[in-house]
Design a protein that fits this description.
Blueprint (H helix, E strand, L loop, with lengths): L15 E2 L2 H8 L8 E7 L8 H11 L8 E4 L9 E4 L9 E5 L6 H12 L10 E7 L7 E7 L5 H13 L16 H17 L4 H12 L29 H10 L4 H19 L6 E9 L13 E9 L4 H15 L36
Parallel strand pairs: 5-6
Antiparallel strand pairs: 1-4, 2-7, 3-4, 6-7, 8-9
Helix pairs in contact: 7-8, 8-9
Length: 370
């Protein structure tokens, strides 16, 4: 949060709250599987990784990723949304684990290991991430499965975390870890000021709401067709890999007046129709909720969730090229002036009159000079 007349570096800069979108991710985490995100980082053949070495690298690089050393705690009544606070007992060793890949250690075995790791809930009350080293891969290779809860970051934020962990991007580490938890009095004042700022910017709501409703299109999308895929699911998961040449995918999308995402939707709709046909079911259309990021990029200091959604009904029948052309036209009609505008329905924008840090991990926009 930024206040006119308050210099950066005051206690206001130390209060980092979960955004409304972050809280939505927490509220959505119910059912047999946790709402967690996973990524597999595979080393080259013969590049065996020692558990101790990986711990040392992670311990060094996460110093520039404050969120990986923080816990989300509730604020006292009347003091606003939950707050991210430093974990004074943080120990990277508690987040790095090791598992042996089942023989012969090929891709399928690695994917089975990843399915098992991602399905295990992260321990509450500590930073919500883990890194599992998978040994025993074919060719003496190794892999690291990184898992974090969705409240920590969306897709863009997750890529920023992975880039910093893997590529070793240079970011200045925080020198004041761990900070003390903000006292209730400061949280109460911060929450009150935040509410006042919301009232001050109510005039901007109609335009944002217009774009949000255009993206969500309530009432314009029919219910998804009834089929065996629309039912409660269990904990079993199986991953597969499909490889395609990105240049060819991009070229096909452009030729149809669409994008890479349109090509992916075309492939998915055809695959679902074929799977249902094998079960003796027939569908001609499917309804897809397409995530739309509200930002072009993220940084290690700007995580959280900033994603809207666009529900679209797309064809599942017909030739691939015919479906691609139709899907490209459908998604083009659903695009709005503001990407991810529907996120504004539950997460208000943050404004500022001077350069300062973001309000929290899910802030709607960066602070800019006035």
């Amino acid at each position: 949060m930024c206040l006119v007349g308050v210099e950066p570096g005051t206690w206001y800069d130390l209060i980092e709250r979960a955004s409304a979108l972050d809280l939505m991710e927490l509220a959505s985490d119910f059912g047999p599987l946790p709402l967690q995100v996973g990524a597999i980082l595979v080393s080259g053949s013969g590049e065996s990784l020692a558990v101790g070495g990986v711990r040392a690298v992670l311990a060094d690089r996460i110093c520039a990723l404050p969120r990986l050393r923080q816990r989300l705690v509730s604020a006292p009544p009347g003091c606003g949304r939950p707050v991210w606070v430093d974990d004074p007992d943080f120990d990277v060793a508690g987040h790095v684990h090791e598992v042996a890949c089942s023989p012969p250690g090929g891709q399928d075995a690695l994917l089975r290991a990843a399915a098992g790791v991602v399905a295990v809930p992260l321990p509450p009350g500590q930073p919500l991430w883990s890194a599992t080293i998978v040994t025993g891969l074919a060719g003496d290779g190794c892999a690291v499965i990184v898992v974090f809860h969705h409240v920590l970051a969306d897709g863009m934020g997750g890529l920023a975390v992975l880039a910093s962990l893997v590529d070793g991007a240079v970011h200045a580490p925080r020198q004041d870890f761990p900070r003390a938890r903000p006292p209730a009095r400061r949280l109460a004042v911060d929450a009150a000021v935040s509410r006042v700022r919301v009232l001050a910017h109510l005039g901007r709501v109609p335009a944002g709401l217009r774009d949000a409703l255009a993206e969500l299109r309530p009432g314009a999308i029919p219910r998804a067709p009834r089929c065996s895929l629309n039912r409660p699911v269990g904990t079993r998961r199986r991953f597969g890999v499909v490889r395609a040449d990105l240049a060819q995918v991009r070229s096909a999308g452009r030729a149809a007046g669409g994008t890479v995402n349109d090509v992916v939707l075309t492939a998915v709709s055809g695959a679902l129709r074929a799977q249902l046909a094998r079960r003796g079911e027939r569908i001609d259309h499917i309804v897809v909720s397409v995530p739309v990021s509200g930002r072009a990029e993220a940084s290690p200091a700007q995580l959280g969730n900033q994603v809207g959604v666009t529900p679209v009904m797309i064809p599942a029948a017909g030739t691939p090229l015919g479906r691609l052309a139709a899907i490209a036209e459908i998604t083009r009609r659903h695009k709005t002036r503001t990407k991810g505008a529907s996120a504004a329905v539950i997460a208000r924008p943050v404004t500022a009159s001077r350069p300062c840090r973001q309000e929290g991990p899910g802030s709607r926009r960066p602070c800019v000079p006035g």
